[in-house]
Amino acid sequence: MTEKDEAIMGRRSFLKHAAALAIASTSFGQICAWGQTNGDAPLRERAARKGLIYGSAVNYGALTRDTKLAASVVRECGIVVPENELKWEALRPSLDKFDFTQGDFILDFAKKNNILLRGHTLVWHQALPKWFETTVNSQNAEQVLRNHITTAAGHYAGKMHSWDVVNEAIAPWDKDKQSDGMRNSPWYKLLGPKYIDIAFKAAAAADPKAILVLNQDHLEHDTKIDAQSRAATLRLLKRLKASATPVHALGIESHLSMDGEIFSPGVFRTFLKDVAELGLKIMITELDVTDIMFSQNINKRDKLVANKYEEFLSTALQEKAVIGVLTWGLSDKYTWLSKYMPRDDKAAVRPLPLDENFNRKPAWNAIAGAFDKAENR
Ligand code: G3I
């Protein structure tokens, strides 16, 4: 750990972490024999012991303002992903301008703290800048898309663990969905389904080292919508593989709910196996568990959320093609769900591994336990 880390983490916590790191180099058995020490080992370390990576989404504003968040990220995360800073809305002030300021800050923070970085997202139907609709048309769309990806992925070439190249391309529930459950996104309207192939080929040319990911939501639950989404995603992946489009992994967002959305380990396990059989890796990219349907009692809510983390991750990590797990935030203090899926009783939501004061919760224990039980990669 560098002096910088020590400053960020604070002397006491730094010494505790250094002790855990020093001990982590001995055999796992000794650590278990010591009990408490293993209990302290951060998630990044537990994942790394099994050849996995754990991390979380971070956002520029919180990371620059909140030293406790920064210290918690350094302690727990082996990889980070900018929550919004690499989306078109943040990167593209105009058609002929790029602004990498916030993305570069997060890259610098990651490098200084020996943390990997993943990119999110080169192509999406959301978070498009205001100028997009009036500027991009069927004549220039392909050139605008190629230029965006070549410039953005090129800017971070060699420094990105992986990129979400195309995000949420499948939406069988969409009222005006296209054939095969494809979302009728602005990109689909402008270029047809080939926008996906164009995007992955441009990303591979710009950064041959990055793992190129098709990132998708609604794949996790045993519901009609998610079943349609899994089938359409498999069909899309098979088409991309058959046309030698360079897709390397499927990103499963994993925004989990228990509002009547059942999780069936067998169904999910079969889906993961089907994806792995295409020769693809898998990343759990945006994991969180909403607790809006539970009573206000925090202990009860935390336990139910932890049970969902444990059930989901113990299933997902059985598939050896799964190489990494990121939660969509690390602390409840900064979850997107506070704004997008608040509780009716106005109580703070608690979907993540650390609470609003960066204390570890039962969800943290569940994730730690899932890594400890996972087979080596
Ligand atoms: O930065 C502007 C700020 O300048 C402005 O004053 C403010 C006005 O509301 O908006 C700010 O931008 C917001 C941005 O988050 C940063 O806070 C956008 O309005 C808001 O739409 C955006 O929400 C993000 C959302 O994606 C849409 O991009 C959420 O934080 C983010 O958690 C969410 O993440 C998505 C993944 O990218 C894809 N998978 C689903 C996931 C959850 O929706």
Residues in β-strands, percent: 5-15%
- CA-CA gap between termini: 26 Å
- What number is the mean pLDDT? 91
Please identify the top-level CATH class: Alpha Beta
Tell me what you see in this structure.
The protein is an alpha/beta fold and 377 residues long. It has one domain (6-28, 41-373): TIM Barrel (Alpha-Beta Barrel), CATH 3.20.20. Helices cover 47% and strands 14% of the residues. It is built from 18 helices and nine strands. It has helices at residues 3-9, 11-24, 28-34, 36-40, 43-49, 60-65, 67-76, 88-91, 101-112, 132-135, 141-155, 186-191, 194-206, 224-242, 265-276, 298-316, 337-340, 362-373; strands spanning 53-58, 79-82, 116-123, 162-167, 211-216, 249-252, 255-256, 281-289, 322-327. An eight-stranded parallel barrel has the order 1-2-3-4-5-6-8-9, surrounded by six helices. Helix 16 links the parallel strand 8 (281-289) and strand 9. Helix 5 runs parallel beside helix 18. 44% of the residues are buried. Residues 83-84, 87, 126-127, 167, 217, 253, 286, 336 line the site of ligand G3I. Ligand G3I binds at residues 83-84, 87, 126-127, 167, 217, 253, 286, 336.
Name the descriptors.
single chain, TIM Barrel, eight-stranded parallel barrel, binds ligand G3I
Task: Give a quick rundown of the structure.
This protein has 377 residues and is α/β, with parallel strands linked by helices. Helix content is 47%, strand content 14%.
Sequence-ordered SSE layout with sheet pairings:
Blueprint: H1 3-9, H2 11-24, H3 28-34, H4 36-40, H5 43-49, E1 53-58, H6 60-65, H7 67-76, E2 79-82, H8 88-91, H9 101-112, E3 116-123, H10 132-135, H11 141-155, E4 162-167, H12 186-191, H13 194-206, E5 211-216, H14 224-242, E6 249-252, E7 255-256, H15 265-276, E8 281-289, H16 298-316, E9 322-327, H17 337-340, H18 362-373
Parallel strand pairs: 1-2, 1-9, 2-3, 3-4, 4-5, 5-6, 6-8, 7-8, 8-9
Helix pairs in contact: 1-2, 5-18, 11-13, 15-16, 16-18
The structure holds ligand G3I.
